[in-house]
Design goal:
The protein is mainly beta. The protein has helices spanning 6-9, 25-32, 64-68, 87-97, 284-290, 328-335; strands at residues 36-39, 43-58, 75-79, 82-83, 102-108, 111-117, 120-121, 127-128, 131-146, 152-155, 171-185, 194-199, 206-212, 215-220, 233-234, 244-253, 256-267, 277-281, 301-304, 307-316, 319-327.
């Protein structure tokens, strides 16, 4: 999936955008209503555990799963009335049930279905459904913002999806960990690059409460966190984002976050929730280090005119110097802020 300039760092005091004391009262009231967030740009490790188990593929041939009507992308929530907590839990439920007829509770999109199934007994005495399933994922991404008022953070700018089906992983619980970048695979035309890092597995730095199309969101632990000590800056509305010069905060070496120059080439007012901006990397240092935008940089905050305007979400496969970004307003709406 970088210090801020002095004028950016000085743009905000505490959590409110405060105008000069002699400004008119009406203007002061309007400016105090502007939300201010800490732009982060630091990598983080993500662990996500599904609510139920996700069906990522169906086995070849005739299988109980196919006969029952189970599909790729379905989420198996319960088996014979018992909530499914993990793959291991489902295996125990299958062993207890044997080859007797059973009922599965399955979420398909916005619907919850009851599907009858008769598991198949294999030669080694095990029972199977004939489906490949997944219950957790882990990876590296970038934290976009931190809200000092609520302790809420947002990251990635897009959801965590299953690599096989593209389905959004249904979140039961998850956490984030501190991470450092150990190596970079440079992006090239036709071959996206990536950040490679190490997670601090000794402690979780925060817990997740949402995995949405517009990012993952959670609450940081109460302990002091070095990645959130930057000064807060005002949030820009969609109408305030323009084409032209901007900057991103990115962590491409160790634990250091740096500010890099970019150009916002297009603003897509009516585009998808996560592809609102077309961004081109112009900074020679970042181009030399990564070739542009690489996997792991998703969530890198975008700053323009002293305001937080959005986050990097995708790289263009055929041009690593360009990628898409999301409006920060869309992330905040998805976060419930």
């Amino acid at each position: 999936m970088n210090s801020l300039s002095g004028r950016v760092a000085a743009a905000c005091l505490a959590f409110l955008f405060v105008c000069a004391a002699h400004a008119p009262a009406a203007r002061a009231a309007a400016e105090e209503s502007v939300r201010c967030l800490v732009p982060v740009g630091h990598t983080l490790g993500v662990k996500l555990f599904a609510d139920g188990v996700l069906v990522v593929a169906l086995s070849d041939g005739e299988t109980p799963a196919k006969e029952s009507g189970l599909r790729e992308g379905d989420v198996l929530l319960a088996f014979n009335g018992t909530d499914v907590g993990s793959i291991e839990h489902l295996q125990r439920l299958l062993a207890e049930n044997g080859a007797a007829r059973a009922t599965m509770s399955v979420r398909r999109g916005a619907r919850t279905l009851a599907l009858p199934i008769t598991p198949e007994l294999t030669e080694d005495g095990r029972c199977r459904l004939g489906a490949w399933i997944r219950d957790s994922m882990a990876g590296i991404g970038t934290m976009t913002f931190y809200d000092p008022q609520s302790g809420v953070f947002g990251a990635l700018g897009h959801g965590v999806t299953d690599v096989d089906t593209g389905a959004l992983m249904p979140l039961e619980h998850g956490s984030v960990m501190d991470a450092t970048v150990k190596a970079v695979k440079r992006g090239e035309s036709g071959s996206p690059g990536e950040l490679r890092g190490d997670f601090d597995l000794t402690r979780d730095s925060g817990s997740l409460y949402a995995n949405t199309d517009c990012g993952i969101f959670g609450v940081l632990n109460g302990e002091t966190n070095a990645v959130t000590t930057r000064s807060a800056v005002p949030v820009a509305s969609k109408g305030e984002v323009t084409t032209g010069r901007a900057a991103i905060l990115a962590n491409c070496d160790g634990g250091e976050v740096r500010e890099y120059e970019v150009e916002i080439e297009r603003v897509y007012a009516g585009a998808s929730p996560t592809r609102n901006l077309l961004v081109r990397v112009t900074d020679p240092a970042l181009l030399a280090r990564t070739g542009g935008i690489v996997q792991g940089m998703s969530g890198s905050p975008i700053l323009q005119n002293g305001r937080l305007v959005g986050a990097v979400t995708h790289v263009l496969v055929n041009d690593a110097t360009r990628g898409y970004g999301i409006f920060i307003e869309n992330m905040l709406a998805a976060a419930g802020l």
